[in-house]
């Protein structure tokens, strides 16, 4: 039970850090940060591997980098869709 809570908190924190690195392009508040944190962690772990410090099965450095990439791409897609409508 505590593992799930810690993982959720880490995803939210990583999501907010990645959002700050990508110029606050992510909508959704805390829920958006948690989703971006989980997705970014997966992307970062796939692209960069699992180096650096690890908390609650999140490799911090790749997770933050992956989240920043995820939020940046998501923000650019949203901006492109807003421009076409």
Sequence-ordered SSE layout with sheet pairings:
Layout: H1 2-21, H2 29-48, E1 54-55, E2 58-59, H3 60-84
Antiparallel strand pairs: 1-2
Structure characterization notes:
This protein is mostly helical. The protein has 3 helices and 2 strands, in the order H-H-E-E-H. The chain has helices at 2-21, 29-48, 60-84, and strands at residues 54-55, 58-59. It has a two-stranded antiparallel ribbon with strand order 1-2. Helix 1 crosses helix 2 (29-48), helix 1 (2-21) crosses helix 3 (60-84) and helix 2 crosses helix 3 (60-84). The longest helix has 25 residues, at 60-84. It is globular and about 45 Å long. The N and C termini lie far apart (44 Å). This is GlsB/YeaQ/YmgE family stress response membrane protein.
Give the oligomeric state of the chains in this entry, treating copies of one chain as homo and distinct chains as hetero: single chain
Rounded radius of gyration (Å): 13 Å
Largest sheet, strands/sense/barrel: 2 strands, antiparallel
**Overall 3D geometry?**
globular
Q: In what range is the share of β-strand residues? A: under 5%
Organism: Saccharibacillus sacchari
Protein name: GlsB/YeaQ/YmgE family stress response membrane protein
């Amino acid at each position: 039970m505590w593992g799930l809570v810690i993982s959720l908190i880490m995803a939210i924190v990583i999501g907010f850090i990645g959002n700050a690195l990508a110029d606050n392009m992510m909508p959704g508040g805390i829920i958006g940060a948690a989703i971006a944190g989980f997705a970014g962690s997966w992307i970062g772990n796939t692209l960069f591997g699992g180096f650096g410090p690890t908390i609650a099965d999140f490799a911090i450095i790749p997770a933050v980098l992956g989240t920043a990439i995820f939020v940046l791409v998501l923000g650019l897609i949203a901006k492109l869709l807003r421009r076409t409508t």
